[in-house]
Design a protein that fits this description.
The complex is a heterodimer of chains A (436) and B (148).
Chain A: H1 9-14, E1 22-23, E2 27-28, E3 30-31, H2 42-55, H3 65-84, E4 92-95, H4 98-118, H5 120-125, E5 141-145, H6 154-163, E6 166-170, H7 183-186, E7 191-197, H8 209-219, E8 222-226, H9 238-241, E9 245-249, E10 260-264, H10 266-271, E11 282-286, E12 289-292, H11 306-322, H12 324-343, E13 348-351, E14 362-367, H13 372-381, E15 384-385, E16 387-389, H14 394-399, E17 405-409, H15 416-435
Helix pairs in contact in A: 2-11, 3-11, 4-6, 11-12, 12-15, 13-15
Chain B: H1 2-6, H2 9-16, E1 29-35, E2 40-48, E3 54-62, H3 65-78, H4 83-97, H5 107-110, H6 123-147
Antiparallel strand pairs in B: 1-2, 2-3
The chains are: A alpha/beta (436), B alpha+beta (148).
């Protein structure tokens, strides 16, 4: 069936071998957990296999034929992935995942603070330019939001503890959207960095970026975007966003696990001291000290994630083949369908916006009197894979007054039948725990 | 049906009518345990007399049917027993949960807790069943420290 957005879901599904699996006594798998990790199309699996079978060698070292080809494949992958988000390749650093990207950024601030205290000469030797905007301490602040995934919260708590900087956060409304009413009192002249999610992985609310960017610019703070839930699911052009850095994980966009991307503006990349150090990221090394390669290599210590980068580039090509706007519209229709279905179930409440305005394709719910684990168990019993728990956003759950929720998330390979399976599974959970 | 083998009637009955729920005083020691994967929490108190007999287990918990029922079954199963005997049940329950569905459990030792045998087939749910027992073990351990 070809949907109104022109996506032939049956053909898409045929690209994903795992989607034909049977689970729990030979039932068809209904995979609604792509916000946690997406499934991988054959094009990605083949690209990785082909790299290992035909090209594999250590990149950016060695002068043999395979080393040259592997280096080309790696840098070609960087170009493909950069183009996918409208970036310059030299601004894209390969990391393990978004968690590592956010740690890299967070450590840039704490390392800069330590090095600034060690004196100008020592700081220069360790690769820190001395940019005072990266130097924290009591009297400076880091601003996050209550929507954040633990990956964009815990690293900053650590930085605050190490430097004495203050942690502040933008609150959320009961509907699970950011509340910017007091933004001018939260992002202030003492703010060094604002790091927020582009879209909540729990409520699906899309962050209104413009007022946050404007305010951060006004006070001279860096602004970082956790784009894990947006880059895989719709068109993103990094240059148009006005942020200084953005990151996402490859495995949520049909790519392999173990690779993510940190994009940052040249100015920020040049100012940040090295994070992980060792081979690949240096210019010269002597026993007493080293000099460092320019970005992005400066932030890619050790043998790089080569086959993973090649796989991620194949994923970017695969998604671009459908068009990210079409994928976004497809998810939007499925979300609309899910919200309409849930509205028919009086015992089920949506955690997050109940309309489609500025909302992505994740739908989290609580079922009256039934714990999310039990709801998930009933769904799993019917072959429906959803996420249950706090979704790595524990403070948000507390803020919204819920212990845990059940989350369905949609991707290009899902269709209305999958949504129907989710809705009937919720109804079954209500009946099972209410009726016995 | 697979669900019924997991949510056996004994479990559903305990879930609906939890025995011993609520925090009571006096108590010998208390333990708070959290399941970090889902955020479920339990605060559990044990009251032990001078002879090492468990007089009461009281608790306040948020969680799924499995963890709530496990707390209720625990209360019913260990109150009035000598500590050593309660710890034998704990050990048997722990072994049952680790069995991946290969063990039906000994009703002579476990009592109502044998109903949790089906849980061991779902590794993600084993933690739910063990949460109150972890709190119980920890609280008993603490009470021994206090008594010494």
């Amino acid at each position: 069936m070809i949907t109104a957005t022109g996506l032939d879901v049956a053909a898409v599904r045929a690209d994903f071998p795992i989607l034909s699996r049977r689970v729990r006594d030979n039932q068809a798998l209904v995979y609604l957990d792509s916000a946690a990790t997406s499934q991988k199309p054959r094009a990605v699996l083949d690209a990785e296999r082909r790299f290992y079978e035909e090209v594999n060698a250590a990149v950016h070292r060695g002068a043999h034929a395979l080393a040259e080809e592997a280096t080309d494949a790696y840098e070609q992958a960087r170009m493909t992935i950069a183009a996918f988000v409208g970036a310059h390749p030299q601004q894209c650093v390969f990391v393990r995942n978004a968690t590592e990207a956010l740690n890299l950024l967070a450590y840039s601030f704490s390392n800069a603070t330590v090095l600034a205290g060690a004196g100008v000469v020592a700081a220069r030797q360790a690769g820190f330019s001395g940019d005072p905007r990266l130097v924290l301490g009591p009297g400076r602040s880091i601003v996050l939001s209550e929507l954040e995934h633990h990956a964009n919260l815990v690293p900053w708590q650590q930085v605050a503890a190490k430097t004495g900087a203050t942690l502040r956060w933008l609150p959320v409304t009961p509907a699970g959207r950011l509340d910017l009413t007091d933004i001018d009192q939260i992002i202030t002249a003492d703010t060094a960095v604002v790091s927020v999610t582009a879209q909540s992985n729990v409520t699906g609310a899309i962050t209104p970026l413009a007022p946050i960017v404007d305010r951060a610019r006004q006070v001279g703070a860096f602004i970082i975007l956790d784009a894990c839930q947006t880059v895989p699911n719709g068109p993103v052009d990094v240059t148009g966003l006005g942020v200084d850095a953005l990151c996402w994980s490859g495995h949520k966009m049909c790519g392999p696990t173990g690779i993510g991307v940190l994009w940052a503006r040249d100015e920020l990349l040049a100012a940040m001291p090295p994070f992980l150090t060792g081979g690949s990221m240096i210019d010269t090394v002597e026993m007493t000290g080293s000099t460092f390669a320019p970005p992005p290599q400066r932030f890619e210590a050790g043998t790089p994630l080569t086959a993973q980068a090649v796989g991620l580039a194949a994923a970017a090509d695969y998604l671009a083949g459908f068009g990210m706007a079409r994928i976004a519209e497809h998810e939007r229709r499925l979300t609309e369908c899910a919200l309409a279905g849930i509205a028919q179930l009086p015992q089920v409440r949506v955690i997050g916006p109940s309309d489609l305005v500025d909302r992505g394709g994740v739908v989290s719910v609580v079922v009256d009197g039934v714990h999310a684990h039990d709801v998930g168990q009933v769904l799993d019993d019917r072959g429906v894979a959803v996420r249950v728990g706090h979704h790595c956003a524990w403070p948000l759950n507390r803020r919204l007054g819920i212990a845990a929720s059940t989350r369905a998330s949609f991707y290009l390979y899902n269709d209305e039948d999958d949504v129907a399976a989710f809705i009937s599974g919720l109804a079954a959970a209500v009946a099972y725990f209410g009726g016995r | 049906m697979r669900l019924d083998s997991l949510y056996q009637d004994v479990i559903m009955d305990h879930y609906r009518r939890r025995c011993g729920h609520g925090l009571r005083e006096p108590y010998s020691a208390e333990s708070c345990q959290v399941n970090p994967t889902c955020g479920d929490e339990i605060r559990l108190r044990v009251t032990v007399d001078g002879l090492g007999r468990i007089l009461d287990v009281s608790y306040d918990a948020t969680g799924c049917a499995i963890s709530q029922a496990a707390a209720s079954v625990l209360h019913e199963g260990v109150c009035g027993l000598p500590q050593a005997e309660a710890m034998q049940i704990e050990a048997a329950f722990h072994a049952l949960m680790q069995s991946r569905g290969t063990d039906a459990g000994d009703p002579e030792v476990l009592g109502d807790a044998v109903a949790f045998a089906g849980v061991s087939r779902y590794p993600a749910r084993v933690k739910c069943a063990l949460l109150p027992w972890m709190a119980f073990k920890d609280a008993l351990h603490r009470s021994e420290g206090i008594n010494r």
